[in-house]
Amino acid sequence: MEREISMVELEAEIDIILHTLKVKSKRVQLVRGTGAQFVCEDFGVVVSAINRTDYSSIKNIVRGKFPGYRDVYISTFDDLLEARDEILWTLMQSGYIKLIRMNFPRQFNKLIVSENFGNKIIDERLRRWGDIPKYRFFVEENKKAKEMPATMVLSTEPGFFDYMP
Asked: Three-state SS across 90-127?
């Protein structure tokens, strides 16, 4: 059963997620009374807190105001753990994990190795690539990496987990 949270709670949760991920953002409200947008200029990402019914109208406004940005929409009905992952995958497309690896090596290793996030990245890549022939090499490479400890993958290719397609 879905549980709706208030817009105030949703905006607070998004702010916490971004803060925890060490991502600077600026909160703006493009349309009064329809939630807020969190603009992550360093990564070209806009995270919008919305009511489910506002999606199409907000989407057009966000894309008009922030052309070239990637956008994530989280509604008051969405699962916040899934929303966190969606924010993370979107940030990864803009180089987020590389930034963490280069600037916060201890946190990076803890995230990838101790929290097993490396396997979660591989699983998401494999889900996105599916059985598409042009990604066959990447699929095989990621399947092999999944069979190895993350520490071994990192020792042979430190940037292996840096990107999300």
From this structure: HHHCCCHHHHHHHHCHHHHHHHHHHCCHHHHHHHHHHH
97-131 pLDDT tens trace? 999 999 999 989 998 998 889 999 999 999 999 99
Residue type, 127: R
Map out the domains of the chain as residue ranges: 7-78, 104-152
CA separation for the pair 27, 40 (Å, rounded): 9
- Give the burial string for 89-113 (b: 16+ CB within 10 Å, else e): bbbbebbbbbbbbeeeeeebeebbe
User: For 90, how many CA atoms within 13 A lie in the half-sphere containing its CB?
Assistant: 23
Residue 97: what are its φ and ψ, rounded to 5°?
-65, -35
Residue 11 vs residues 80, 116, 131: alpha-carbon distances, Å: 11, 28, 37
